[in-house]
Amino acid sequence: xxxxxxxxxxxxxxxxxxxILSKINLxxxxxxxxxxxxxxxxxxxxxxxxxxxxxPLTEGEGNIVGYDLKTLLERDIPFLRRxxxxxxxxxxxxxxxxxxxxLLFVLKATGWKNAKDMQDKIDNVLNSVGxxxxxxxxPHQLSGGEQQRVAIARALLNDPELILADxxxxxxxxxxxxxxxxxxxxxNEQGKTIIMSTHDYALIMKFPTxxxxxxxxxxxxxxxxxx
Length: 227
Fold this sequence. Notes:
This is Cell division ATP-binding protein FtsE. Residues 6-227 form the ABC transporter domain. The chain is of the alpha/beta class. It has 7 helices and 10 strands. It has one domain (4-226): Rossmann fold, CATH 3.40.50.300. The strands form 2 sheets. The chain has a 6-stranded mixed sheet with strand order 6-7-8-3-9-10, sandwiched between helices. It has a 4-stranded antiparallel sheet with strand order 2-1-4-5, covered by helices on one side. Helices cover 32% and strands 27% of the residues. The chain is globular, with a radius of gyration of 17 Å.
């Protein structure tokens, strides 16, 4: 039986007491790649924020990488996020540190101590996204696609059980989007579970996989050819 990474049962997501998505039932197993699609304002970001503890779950049952979202305490959120790699649309790299220092900052903040182990890990994740030769560059010296590759590498630092990619190609041109998507697919093929929100239907057609759609306060699976 496949290992469950995410389980949601009768979940309703609220923001400021307003229902954003209701009656969500979803099971994501280890190694899956899942798209979340929908128009702006349909609930994609609220869905992702609930998964990484930014929006509290108040209705329904939710379990993600072993954490109960309903009973999740404020102090537990950093530990949850160590088991989840998060990739944002706007990269969120520290502008005053080079790429190596950006990744070193994350490792130190999450409890790593040994200098050699940290450097080996940084080299490994940068190599996995084709960015090892850029380690001494500053973020502003990289293109948008290169910065997003670094952001993906950062998400891999603590060997997460799940990667949440929230519109990871939203700020990229079509060709660069395909290149970043190819990196994510390669990581998925190596066994990582990925949930990716996107409004880029061209990417979905080029890299088809299981797709859920947010619409009319609900979320449902769509057949690929109808998205």
